[in-house]
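Thread: Newbie trying to understand structure tokens

Hi all, I'm a second-year student working on a class project, and my supervisor (Dr. K.) asked me to get a predicted structure for one chain before our next meeting. I've only ever worked with sequences, so writing a 3D structure as a token string is new to me. If someone could post the tokens and maybe explain what I'm looking at, I'd be very grateful. Here's the chain:
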Amino acid sequence: MATEWNCIKEGKEGIIINVRVQPKASRAKIKVEKEHLKIWVTEPPVDGKANRAVVELLAKKLGVRKAQVEIKSGETSRNKVVIIKGIELKEAQARLKND
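---
Reply by user tm_fold:
Sure, no problem. This is what the structure looks like when written as tokens:
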């Protein structure tokens, strides 16, 4: 089955997700959009706080350990590429859909 969204695909290291982050939001949430996974976090983009919040939120939503979530690129940008290890593409899609 082809990927349902352009923002998530399988790679050699694991699932690759294109993410767009909105820091300092009133509440944390995730929304699947066609080109990226939109993630709102309550933390500010200072000293890596927003990045840690993104990792924690994705790990919780996907049911994996935080160590399995890695920000591969975009550490200082709102646009990031995140690698998730130890989960199948279909499972990740199903868990992200349940909102």
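A couple of things are worth pointing out once you decode it. The two ends are 22 Å apart (CA to CA). The longest strand covers residues 15-22. Feel free to ask follow-ups in this thread.
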